[in-house]
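User: Can you predict the 3D structure of Alpha/beta hydrolase? Sequence below.
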Amino acid sequence: MPLAITLALGACSSPPEKPQDQVAAIQAARQGGYVPIAGPVQGWDATWTLGQQPLEVSWLAPAGEHGAAPLILYLPGLGESARSGELWRRAWAEAGYAVLSIQMPQQGRALYSSGDAQAGAFRKLAQDNYSQASLMQRIALAQAALAEAAKRGRAGDPALAGVDWDNWMVAGFDLGAQTAAALAGERGNGQARLSALRPKAAILLSPYVESSYDTDRFTHIDVPVLSISGPRDKDPFSWIPSPQQRQVLWRGLQVNDSYLLTLIEADHALLGGELPRPMGGPGHGGERGGPGGGMARPPAFNEGGGEGRRGGPGEGPGGRHGGRKPGAGGGIREHFDPRQAAYVQAVTLAFLDSRLRHAAAASQWLDQNATTWLGHGAWLEKKNP
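Assistant: Sure. Here are the predicted C-alpha coordinates for Alpha/beta hydrolase:
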Protein backbone atom coordinates (compact mmCIF):
# COMPACT_ATOMS: atom_id res chain seq x y z
CA MET A 1 0.00 0.00 0.00
CA PRO A 2 1.42 3.44 -0.89
CA LEU A 3 2.84 5.40 2.03
CA ALA A 4 0.41 8.32 1.66
CA ILE A 5 -2.62 6.01 1.74
CA THR A 6 -1.25 4.15 4.75
CA LEU A 7 -0.87 7.43 6.59
CA ALA A 8 -4.37 8.53 5.70
CA LEU A 9 -5.94 5.33 6.98
CA GLY A 10 -3.85 5.09 10.11
CA ALA A 11 -3.97 8.74 11.06
CA CYS A 12 -6.20 8.32 14.08
CA SER A 13 -3.65 6.15 15.88
CA SER A 14 -0.54 8.33 15.58
CA PRO A 15 0.55 11.44 13.68
CA PRO A 16 3.04 11.21 10.81
CA GLU A 17 6.49 12.17 12.02
CA LYS A 18 7.51 14.43 9.13
CA PRO A 19 5.63 17.43 7.71
CA GLN A 20 6.01 16.11 4.16
CA ASP A 21 4.34 12.87 5.24
CA GLN A 22 1.51 14.80 6.86
CA VAL A 23 0.98 16.82 3.68
CA ALA A 24 1.05 13.64 1.60
CA ALA A 25 -1.56 12.11 3.89
CA ILE A 26 -3.85 15.13 3.44
CA GLN A 27 -3.40 15.00 -0.32
CA ALA A 28 -4.26 11.31 -0.33
CA ALA A 29 -7.35 11.98 1.77
CA ARG A 30 -8.51 14.62 -0.74
CA GLN A 31 -8.79 12.07 -3.55
CA GLY A 32 -12.33 11.90 -4.88
CA GLY A 33 -13.18 15.30 -3.45
CA TYR A 34 -13.09 18.72 -5.03
CA VAL A 35 -9.52 19.04 -6.33
CA PRO A 36 -8.92 21.97 -8.69
CA ILE A 37 -5.78 22.21 -10.79
CA ALA A 38 -2.87 23.23 -8.56
CA GLY A 39 0.23 25.17 -9.48
CA PRO A 40 3.38 26.55 -7.82
CA VAL A 41 3.19 29.46 -5.42
CA GLN A 42 5.45 32.30 -4.36
CA GLY A 43 5.34 34.46 -1.27
CA TRP A 44 7.04 36.80 1.14
CA ASP A 45 6.72 38.18 4.66
CA ALA A 46 7.09 41.81 5.71
CA THR A 47 6.17 44.37 8.33
CA TRP A 48 4.20 47.39 7.19
CA THR A 49 3.50 50.49 9.27
CA LEU A 50 0.03 51.88 8.67
CA GLY A 51 -0.46 55.11 10.56
CA GLN A 52 1.37 54.41 13.81
CA GLN A 53 0.57 50.68 13.83
CA PRO A 54 3.11 48.04 12.73
CA LEU A 55 1.43 45.18 10.89
CA GLU A 56 2.74 41.70 10.13
CA VAL A 57 2.05 40.82 6.50
CA SER A 58 2.39 37.43 4.83
CA TRP A 59 1.72 36.95 1.11
CA LEU A 60 1.13 33.80 -0.95
CA ALA A 61 0.11 33.88 -4.61
CA PRO A 62 0.35 31.78 -7.78
CA ALA A 63 3.77 31.86 -9.40
CA GLY A 64 4.26 32.76 -13.05
CA GLU A 65 1.67 33.93 -15.56
CA HIS A 66 -1.78 33.17 -14.26
CA GLY A 67 -4.04 36.09 -15.14
CA ALA A 68 -5.67 38.28 -12.54
CA ALA A 69 -5.97 36.22 -9.36
CA PRO A 70 -8.94 36.77 -7.02
CA LEU A 71 -7.88 37.91 -3.55
CA ILE A 72 -8.44 36.38 -0.12
CA LEU A 73 -7.83 38.48 2.99
CA TYR A 74 -6.88 36.02 5.75
CA LEU A 75 -7.09 37.00 9.43
CA PRO A 76 -5.34 34.67 11.94
CA GLY A 77 -6.37 33.78 15.48
CA LEU A 78 -5.31 35.37 18.73
CA GLY A 79 -1.69 34.54 19.52
CA GLU A 80 -0.90 33.57 15.93
CA SER A 81 1.42 35.27 13.48
CA ALA A 82 0.52 36.38 9.96
CA ARG A 83 2.24 33.20 8.75
CA SER A 84 -0.26 30.95 10.50
CA GLY A 85 -2.97 28.99 8.71
CA GLU A 86 -0.58 27.78 6.03
CA LEU A 87 -2.54 24.56 5.40
CA TRP A 88 -5.41 26.67 4.10
CA ARG A 89 -3.52 29.63 2.64
CA ARG A 90 -1.15 27.49 0.59
CA ALA A 91 -3.96 25.29 -0.77
CA TRP A 92 -5.84 28.42 -1.85
CA ALA A 93 -2.74 29.95 -3.48
CA GLU A 94 -1.99 26.70 -5.31
CA ALA A 95 -5.53 26.87 -6.73
CA GLY A 96 -4.89 30.32 -8.20
CA TYR A 97 -5.82 32.75 -5.40
CA ALA A 98 -3.70 35.54 -3.95
CA VAL A 99 -3.78 35.43 -0.15
CA LEU A 100 -2.95 38.45 2.03
CA SER A 101 -2.60 37.57 5.72
CA ILE A 102 -2.27 40.32 8.33
CA GLN A 103 -1.83 40.43 12.11
CA MET A 104 -1.07 43.12 14.66
CA PRO A 105 2.13 42.07 16.50
CA GLN A 106 0.54 42.62 19.91
CA GLN A 107 -2.16 40.09 19.04
CA GLY A 108 0.34 37.67 17.51
CA ARG A 109 3.20 35.75 19.11
CA ALA A 110 4.22 38.82 21.11
CA LEU A 111 1.01 38.36 23.08
CA TYR A 112 2.74 35.71 25.18
CA SER A 113 5.38 38.16 26.33
CA SER A 114 2.79 40.58 27.70
CA GLY A 115 2.41 41.23 31.40
CA ASP A 116 -1.03 39.61 31.48
CA ALA A 117 0.26 36.45 29.81
CA GLN A 118 3.23 36.22 32.15
CA ALA A 119 0.86 36.66 35.10
CA GLY A 120 -1.45 33.94 33.77
CA ALA A 121 -4.34 36.40 33.24
CA PHE A 122 -5.53 34.65 30.09
CA ARG A 123 -9.21 35.40 30.47
CA LYS A 124 -8.37 39.09 30.76
CA LEU A 125 -6.36 38.81 27.55
CA ALA A 126 -9.35 37.24 25.82
CA GLN A 127 -11.73 39.84 27.22
CA ASP A 128 -9.53 42.73 26.06
CA ASN A 129 -8.83 41.36 22.61
CA TYR A 130 -12.39 40.31 21.78
CA SER A 131 -13.74 43.69 22.92
CA GLN A 132 -15.58 46.08 20.62
CA ALA A 133 -12.69 48.56 20.77
CA SER A 134 -10.23 45.90 19.63
CA LEU A 135 -12.61 44.78 16.88
CA MET A 136 -12.92 48.31 15.52
CA GLN A 137 -9.14 48.69 15.47
CA ARG A 138 -8.78 45.44 13.51
CA ILE A 139 -11.47 46.48 11.03
CA ALA A 140 -9.70 49.80 10.43
CA LEU A 141 -6.38 48.01 9.89
CA ALA A 142 -7.96 45.51 7.50
CA GLN A 143 -9.31 48.41 5.45
CA ALA A 144 -5.94 50.16 5.50
CA ALA A 145 -4.01 47.00 4.60
CA LEU A 146 -6.26 46.22 1.63
CA ALA A 147 -6.01 49.80 0.41
CA GLU A 148 -2.21 49.78 0.76
CA ALA A 149 -1.82 46.44 -1.01
CA ALA A 150 -4.10 47.51 -3.88
CA LYS A 151 -2.27 50.83 -4.21
CA ARG A 152 1.09 49.10 -4.45
CA GLY A 153 -0.20 46.44 -6.81
CA ARG A 154 -1.85 48.91 -9.17
CA ALA A 155 1.30 51.05 -9.11
CA GLY A 156 3.24 48.13 -10.57
CA ASP A 157 4.87 46.63 -7.47
CA PRO A 158 6.03 43.22 -8.77
CA ALA A 159 5.54 41.68 -5.32
CA LEU A 160 1.80 42.39 -5.60
CA ALA A 161 1.26 41.99 -9.34
CA GLY A 162 -1.43 39.99 -11.10
CA VAL A 163 -4.32 40.47 -8.66
CA ASP A 164 -7.95 41.38 -9.27
CA TRP A 165 -8.32 43.76 -6.34
CA ASP A 166 -12.07 44.15 -6.88
CA ASN A 167 -12.80 40.42 -6.67
CA TRP A 168 -12.11 39.42 -3.08
CA MET A 169 -13.42 37.73 0.01
CA VAL A 170 -12.39 37.44 3.64
CA ALA A 171 -11.46 34.39 5.71
CA GLY A 172 -10.67 34.32 9.41
CA PHE A 173 -9.94 31.92 12.26
CA ASP A 174 -10.84 32.46 15.92
CA LEU A 175 -10.22 36.17 16.62
CA GLY A 176 -9.88 36.63 12.87
CA ALA A 177 -13.30 35.06 12.39
CA GLN A 178 -14.79 37.77 14.61
CA THR A 179 -13.26 40.41 12.33
CA ALA A 180 -14.30 38.56 9.17
CA ALA A 181 -17.91 38.30 10.35
CA ALA A 182 -17.98 42.04 11.04
CA LEU A 183 -16.62 42.74 7.55
CA ALA A 184 -19.39 40.48 6.24
CA GLY A 185 -22.01 42.66 7.97
CA GLU A 186 -22.48 41.25 11.48
CA ARG A 187 -23.56 43.96 13.93
CA GLY A 188 -26.08 44.76 16.62
CA ASN A 189 -29.60 45.96 15.91
CA GLY A 190 -29.65 49.68 15.18
CA GLN A 191 -25.90 49.71 14.59
CA ALA A 192 -24.50 50.91 11.28
CA ARG A 193 -22.41 48.51 9.21
CA LEU A 194 -18.99 48.43 10.86
CA SER A 195 -17.04 48.67 7.61
CA ALA A 196 -17.49 50.19 4.19
CA LEU A 197 -15.68 47.15 2.81
CA ARG A 198 -17.98 44.54 1.31
CA PRO A 199 -16.34 41.21 0.52
CA LYS A 200 -18.12 38.90 -1.90
CA ALA A 201 -18.21 36.11 0.69
CA ALA A 202 -16.65 35.03 3.99
CA ILE A 203 -15.11 31.87 5.43
CA LEU A 204 -15.35 31.66 9.23
CA LEU A 205 -13.14 29.02 10.82
CA SER A 206 -14.22 28.54 14.44
CA PRO A 207 -16.67 31.48 14.38
CA TYR A 208 -16.86 33.73 17.41
CA VAL A 209 -20.11 33.99 19.33
CA GLU A 210 -19.90 35.88 22.61
CA SER A 211 -21.57 34.52 25.75
CA SER A 212 -24.22 37.24 25.86
CA TYR A 213 -25.01 36.64 22.21
CA ASP A 214 -27.92 38.19 20.37
CA THR A 215 -28.96 35.93 17.49
CA ASP A 216 -30.23 38.98 15.61
CA ARG A 217 -26.61 40.15 15.16
CA PHE A 218 -26.09 37.48 12.53
CA THR A 219 -29.21 38.32 10.55
CA HIS A 220 -27.37 41.46 9.36
CA ILE A 221 -24.65 39.47 7.57
CA ASP A 222 -25.29 40.22 3.90
CA VAL A 223 -22.84 38.02 1.96
CA PRO A 224 -22.68 34.22 1.63
CA VAL A 225 -20.76 32.57 4.46
CA LEU A 226 -19.03 29.22 4.90
CA SER A 227 -18.93 28.54 8.64
CA ILE A 228 -16.64 25.73 9.86
CA SER A 229 -16.62 24.23 13.35
CA GLY A 230 -17.43 21.00 15.16
CA PRO A 231 -18.13 19.33 18.52
CA ARG A 232 -14.41 19.28 19.44
CA ASP A 233 -13.85 22.97 18.62
CA LYS A 234 -13.24 23.92 22.26
CA ASP A 235 -12.09 27.40 23.17
CA PRO A 236 -8.70 26.92 24.90
CA PHE A 237 -9.67 29.45 27.58
CA SER A 238 -13.34 28.50 27.97
CA TRP A 239 -14.12 32.05 26.82
CA ILE A 240 -16.83 30.46 24.70
CA PRO A 241 -18.48 27.95 27.07
CA SER A 242 -19.05 25.18 24.51
CA PRO A 243 -18.45 24.43 20.83
CA GLN A 244 -22.22 24.34 20.33
CA GLN A 245 -22.37 28.09 20.96
CA ARG A 246 -20.56 28.65 17.67
CA GLN A 247 -23.61 27.19 15.90
CA VAL A 248 -25.65 30.24 16.92
CA LEU A 249 -24.16 32.20 14.04
CA TRP A 250 -25.44 29.64 11.55
CA ARG A 251 -28.93 29.69 13.08
CA GLY A 252 -29.11 33.47 12.76
CA LEU A 253 -27.62 33.64 9.28
CA GLN A 254 -30.19 34.45 6.58
CA VAL A 255 -28.10 34.61 3.38
CA ASN A 256 -28.87 31.97 0.76
CA ASP A 257 -26.02 29.89 -0.66
CA SER A 258 -24.29 29.91 2.73
CA TYR A 259 -22.90 26.66 4.14
CA LEU A 260 -22.09 25.08 7.49
CA LEU A 261 -19.30 22.46 7.56
CA THR A 262 -19.36 20.45 10.78
CA LEU A 263 -16.16 18.46 11.37
CA ILE A 264 -16.60 15.51 13.72
CA GLU A 265 -12.97 15.07 14.82
CA ALA A 266 -11.31 18.44 14.16
CA ASP A 267 -10.14 20.32 17.25
CA HIS A 268 -9.64 24.05 17.60
CA ALA A 269 -5.95 23.75 16.75
CA LEU A 270 -6.54 21.97 13.44
CA LEU A 271 -8.98 24.69 12.40
CA GLY A 272 -6.05 27.09 12.75
CA GLY A 273 -4.54 25.39 9.70
CA GLU A 274 -1.19 24.21 10.99
CA LEU A 275 0.38 20.76 11.09
CA PRO A 276 1.21 19.19 14.46
CA ARG A 277 4.87 19.21 15.38
CA PRO A 278 6.65 15.84 15.32
CA MET A 279 7.07 14.33 18.78
CA GLY A 280 10.48 15.33 20.08
CA GLY A 281 11.04 17.65 17.12
CA PRO A 282 11.72 21.38 17.04
CA GLY A 283 9.28 23.22 19.23
CA HIS A 284 8.25 20.17 21.26
CA GLY A 285 7.43 21.46 24.70
CA GLY A 286 8.45 24.96 23.64
CA GLU A 287 6.69 28.11 22.59
CA ARG A 288 5.30 26.55 19.43
CA GLY A 289 4.89 23.05 20.82
CA GLY A 290 1.90 22.34 18.61
CA PRO A 291 -0.18 23.73 15.81
CA GLY A 292 -1.53 27.24 15.98
CA GLY A 293 -4.86 27.15 17.74
CA GLY A 294 -5.83 30.73 18.40
CA MET A 295 -5.33 31.55 22.06
CA ALA A 296 -2.99 28.91 23.43
CA ARG A 297 -4.14 26.62 26.21
CA PRO A 298 -3.24 27.93 29.68
CA PRO A 299 -1.47 25.60 32.14
CA ALA A 300 -4.65 24.97 34.19
CA PHE A 301 -6.84 24.00 31.24
CA ASN A 302 -8.24 20.49 31.10
CA GLU A 303 -9.96 18.67 28.27
CA GLY A 304 -13.32 18.90 29.97
CA GLY A 305 -13.46 22.62 29.31
CA GLY A 306 -13.10 23.71 32.93
CA GLU A 307 -10.15 24.49 35.17
CA GLY A 308 -7.99 21.76 36.63
CA ARG A 309 -5.49 22.15 39.42
CA ARG A 310 -2.81 24.68 38.66
CA GLY A 311 0.47 22.90 38.17
CA GLY A 312 3.95 24.26 38.10
CA PRO A 313 5.67 26.04 35.23
CA GLY A 314 5.15 24.34 31.91
CA GLU A 315 2.55 21.94 33.25
CA GLY A 316 -0.45 20.82 31.28
CA PRO A 317 -3.84 19.44 32.31
CA GLY A 318 -3.65 17.82 35.71
CA GLY A 319 0.03 18.56 36.14
CA ARG A 320 3.14 17.86 34.09
CA HIS A 321 1.98 16.62 30.71
CA GLY A 322 3.82 17.29 27.49
CA GLY A 323 5.64 20.39 28.78
CA ARG A 324 2.80 22.70 27.77
CA LYS A 325 2.92 26.36 28.66
CA PRO A 326 1.32 29.55 27.44
CA GLY A 327 2.09 29.87 23.75
CA ALA A 328 2.03 26.15 23.06
CA GLY A 329 -1.03 26.39 20.85
CA GLY A 330 -2.68 23.50 22.70
CA GLY A 331 0.43 21.33 22.88
CA ILE A 332 1.35 18.31 20.77
CA ARG A 333 -1.69 16.64 19.26
CA GLU A 334 -1.51 12.92 19.97
CA HIS A 335 -3.99 12.20 17.15
CA PHE A 336 -3.93 13.84 13.76
CA ASP A 337 -6.58 12.89 11.21
CA PRO A 338 -5.58 14.19 7.76
CA ARG A 339 -9.12 13.61 6.53
CA GLN A 340 -10.37 16.50 8.64
CA ALA A 341 -7.81 18.85 7.07
CA ALA A 342 -8.71 17.44 3.63
CA TYR A 343 -12.39 18.24 4.24
CA VAL A 344 -11.54 21.88 5.02
CA GLN A 345 -9.34 22.24 1.96
CA ALA A 346 -11.84 20.67 -0.45
CA VAL A 347 -14.93 22.48 0.82
CA THR A 348 -13.24 25.90 1.10
CA LEU A 349 -11.80 25.56 -2.41
CA ALA A 350 -15.21 24.67 -3.85
CA PHE A 351 -16.77 27.61 -1.98
CA LEU A 352 -14.08 29.98 -3.27
CA ASP A 353 -14.50 28.79 -6.85
CA SER A 354 -18.28 29.06 -6.65
CA ARG A 355 -18.29 32.58 -5.18
CA LEU A 356 -15.27 34.28 -6.81
CA ARG A 357 -15.07 32.39 -10.10
CA HIS A 358 -18.76 31.49 -10.45
CA ALA A 359 -17.71 27.96 -11.36
CA ALA A 360 -20.80 25.81 -11.93
CA ALA A 361 -18.80 22.63 -11.27
CA ALA A 362 -17.84 23.92 -7.80
CA SER A 363 -21.45 24.75 -6.90
CA GLN A 364 -22.59 21.38 -8.21
CA TRP A 365 -19.99 19.56 -6.12
CA LEU A 366 -21.02 21.42 -2.96
CA ASP A 367 -24.72 20.72 -3.50
CA GLN A 368 -24.65 17.20 -4.96
CA ASN A 369 -21.38 15.41 -4.28
CA ALA A 370 -19.86 16.78 -1.11
CA THR A 371 -22.13 14.95 1.34
CA THR A 372 -21.31 11.54 -0.11
CA TRP A 373 -17.58 12.28 -0.20
CA LEU A 374 -17.52 13.56 3.40
CA GLY A 375 -19.11 10.33 4.61
CA HIS A 376 -19.33 10.04 8.38
CA GLY A 377 -16.38 12.34 9.08
CA ALA A 378 -18.26 15.60 8.54
CA TRP A 379 -21.48 16.99 7.19
CA LEU A 380 -22.40 19.98 5.08
CA GLU A 381 -25.59 22.05 5.32
CA LYS A 382 -26.82 24.81 3.05
CA LYS A 383 -29.09 27.80 3.46
CA ASN A 384 -31.67 27.44 0.69
CA PRO A 385 -34.15 30.03 -0.62
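Residues 3-283+335-382 form a domain with the Rossmann fold fold (CATH 3.40.50.1820). The chain is about 30% helix and 15% strand.
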